[in-house]
Write a structure and sequence with these properties.
single chain; about 200 residues; mainly alpha; 8 helices; about 70% helix; globular
């Protein structure tokens, strides 16, 4: 994202904050491509078990709807705040889908264990899904500055230099916050799939 793009997004955010519904729609439209790319990466890397019941389009659609609904009442004042809200919505959608998937899998296996086994590579292993779910839930427990950097870099896929620009921080500070966030998330989860 260039400085020009940031300025254009900020102008849309300002207009949307002033009640311009067309600006809100344009902001959401511009966010859709990025939401798709980011959701695809997180969906395939962290939540492969969801592919049994969900397609990427369902993740993107649900995220877009939740983001649109949130923008009805929330007016993120900056580009950074908008991206943080978008990252939060992606995470919410995937965690909710993982919870539903886990409940459905539990219901399906009651009385039917032995009819079908897990795939040989363990891709749909409930334990792996539970570990990833716990990892993503722990993001909410990060200190605000670490969470902002983590959400923008991990969920939104923004390079650290861009995160520094959007959050108005020195690049070294962003790097420090990224390391602190990942260490905190990995603490106590050293054997988790995120380290592979």
């Amino acid at each position: 994202m260039t400085d020009d793009t940031s300025l254009q997004l900020q102008a849309l955010i300002d207009r949307a904050g002033a009640g311009d519904r067309a600006a809100r729609s344009e902001l959401l439209e511009r966010a859709c491509d990025r939401l798709r790319r980011l959701a695809a990466r997180i969906f395939h890397e962290s939540f492969p078990a969801l592919r049994v019941r969900h397609e990427l389009d369902s993740v993107v659609h649900e995220t877009w709807l939740r983001l649109a609904q949130a923008l009805e009442t929330a007016n993120p004042p900056t580009v950074a705040d908008f991206f943080r809200l978008a990252a939060h919505k992606i995470r919410q959608v995937l965690l909710d889908m993982a919870d539903r998937n886990r409940r459905l899998a539990a219901r399906e296996t009651v009385g039917f264990s032995g009819l079908a086994g897990p795939p040989p590579d363990g891709t749909y292993d409930p334990a792996r899904l539970a570990e990833w779910t716990e990892f993503h839930r722990r993001v909410d427990d990060l200190p605000a500055d670490q969470r902002a950097v983590f959400e923008m870099h991990h969920y939104l896929g923004l390079p650290q230099a861009e995160v520094a620009r959007v959050l108005n921080l020195h690049p070294r500070k962003v790097s420090y916050l990224w390391i602190a966030a990942t260490e905190r998330l990995a603490d106590g989860m050293a054997d988790g799939p995120w380290l592979s």
